[in-house]
Structures are given as C-alpha cells and as structure tokens.
Amino acid sequence: MAEVSLLGQLFGTSGLSIEGSAWPSAIRVQHGPLARLPDVFRQLLLSSPEALADRYRGPLSFGRGLRSPKTFDSQANAASLLQLGLTVFLQDIAQTLPGAPGFLRELERELGVATGSARLSAFASAGDDGVSCHYDAEEVISIQLLGRKTFYVAPMTEIELPYGAQFGPDMVAVENLYEQARAGFPDPSQVLFTPHEMQPGSVLFLPRGTWHRTEAREPSLSLSIVIRPPVLADALLRWLQPWLLGDARWRLPLYGGVEAQRDGLTTLLGELAARLVNDAQQSILDWSSTPPVESTELLRVPGSQLAVTPSAPGRVHLQVTALDQDWRPRVTFDSEVPDGLLPAIEWLQRRTSAFDLARLGQQSPQIPPGDLRQLLELLVKASALRQLVPRG
Predict the structure, then answer these.
(1) How confident is the model at residue 1 (pLDDT cuts 50, 70, 90)?
(2) Where residue 144 sits, what CATH number does that domain have?
(3) Among 29, 44, 104, 262, which one is most buried in terms of CB atoms within 10 A?
(4) What would you report as the CA-atom Rg of the chain, rounded to the nearest whole angstrom?
(5) What are the C-alpha distances in Å from 64 to residues 69, 88, 131, 211?
(6) If we measure between CA atoms, which residue out of 367, 248, 380 comes closest to residue 304?
(7) Sorting pLDDT into bands at 50, 70 and 90, what band is 392?
(8) CA 364 from centre of chain
C-alpha cells in the first residue's frame, strides 16, 4: 500500500494539488477525526492550551481579537496570559513540540520549497474571543485541535499574490504594501464571507491573500502551518545585491550629481542586462535557497577556526569555532571526521581568498570529490565558510 503524503493525511488521500507558482489557489476545508492527522499533532503536550503555553518559551503576542486588531509582543508566561482571558499567539512552536522540525522539513520537501519556508505556530484562547479580520501574505493551514470555533473566510481581490506582512482594517500598512496597492488598499467591508465550523480534527487551507476572522465559542487550541517560500523578487534581490557589490564599479559613491554618473551607469546596466538574459536565470533561482556547494565559490568567515587533534585510528577530532552576533567565539562543530580529510582541512586553514570545489580537489586529488563536498557542506553549516553568489 502506497504511503500517504503529509498533505494527504491533512486533506484526504487526494491531498492538495501543486499548481505551479500559484499553488494552490483555492480555499479548502477537510473535517474528520483527530486520529487521521500525523502523529506530531496527536501528543500529550497538545492536550490543553495551558499545557502547551506553560512549556513554550519562544516569541509570543497577545490580544483581544474580537475587540481590537491590536496585538502586543510580550515576555510574559503564555499560560498566565491565557488565565487573563486573552488570545495568545505562540509564534514558533517547532522547538517546543517534539517531532515538529522533522515534520516541517518533510513537508517542505513534499512541496518543493526551500528549507525554512514552513513554520509552525499556535493560537490559544480561553474562549469568547478570536482573531480580527485580516489577510496574510503567506499560505496557512489551520488545524483545530481543541474546542470549536468559526472561521469566516473570503478571497481578497484587490491585490494578486500579496507580499509582505498581514493587513486588515485599522492595521498599519507596511512600506512594501504601497506599491502593491496603487488601485486602492484592500477593503473587506463589502465582501461576502463564508463560515467554516471548525472542530477537533478540522483542517482549513487559506491561500495567501484570503480575508479571514475567527470566533471561538469555548477554550480553543489550533496550530497553523505557515508556508512562506521565497518569491521571485526575493530570489532576484538576494542574488543581485551581493553580485553587484562584488564589482567595485557598483560601489562608486555618487558625488558630482546625476550627470556625472550617467555614462558609467549606462555601461553597467548594459552589462547587467546581458548577464541577466544570458546566464543568470539558474543562479537566481538556486540562490533562493541554499545552492549546492559545487555551484559556488566559498570564502573563510573571519574569526572562524578549525582545530584538529588526533583521535581513534583512521579518525581525527575536528572542532570548529565561529564568532556569533556578539563577537563571541562559539563551538559550531565538535566531532570526529576521517583522517583522510586532513590535507583538505589544512589547506582550508591557510586559504585566505575565495575558492571552489574544483580548486580544493586540485589541492587534494587523493580525496574523493564526494568527501570534499561533504566537508564543505559541514563547514558552511558550521559558519566557517560562506557561499558566494555565482559570478559566471
């Protein structure tokens, strides 16, 4: 019997079809018993809102959604906020809920999106409250675990595929919303909403740009799988800025007024246009996620250290340290590796300029290319090496 996909477990054996860049475009709801859901949603920690809230130590916000769209970030204990009758939003519960990180990575592979595109959050309410009307600029799968509540949903038609942050009546418009809203800011006042009655085991899919509000009749706990892969603009901008800054001509300060720079800019734009048309397409798309190490150059991260000491026969002990955001050295890798990698490690310790996998292979021809690739991947994850934008 074929294994049922994660989406199949949530929405029935047919799952949700993946329809290219607009995946997927329709609201969908599936009701059924909790027992059909993946194991990660059926564990003791999710037996009550208080149980999860008491364990959670991550970022959170709270509000009274039926009275005001305002929410407030808080460092308070989430369980204490629930006792005050507030609706509490646990922004990222993946590290609190056993099995959640593995579930999210498997779902990302199933959807074909970059690692880190999916996160898991939770909404807990003591009852008689909910979430005010808004749309999200990301796909949301809401899973009702405890209590009953009503989702009121409707498509938002003013902006196709909205980007940025959520927006709704009386909410602040983020800066990048203005260019998207030239025809007017989205307004739900004349929209016809469809109610969906959610009970334990109900799953609701909301495409990005779907108006929704909720009302809980009783203490409620729901989880939201939020899916936010990079958009094409993200992929281009992430590739473009470091690529431009790698060329000193694009780092030229703008003294002397516009006319003094016009001729040089014309030349640079022509080169950039040719680069974009001829051979940058795959680089841009690859750079929206972590590109394979064999497709990029790499550079040692300043302050990182590789320390090697003898270990068991055929093995050496490798410890990697790197500076954190506070400039403090942190151990980012500490384990044994095959001693056959020692010549490559010693070469990397001395290397001060950019290199690629082929160059490393020339310096260590006795080491299989697959082993060198794994070593580079390890050092990238350990923040000892930084992958550079492919320059062609």
Answers:
(1) very low
(2) 2.60.120.650
(3) 104
(4) 25
(5) 7, 9, 7, 18
(6) 380
(7) low
(8) 36
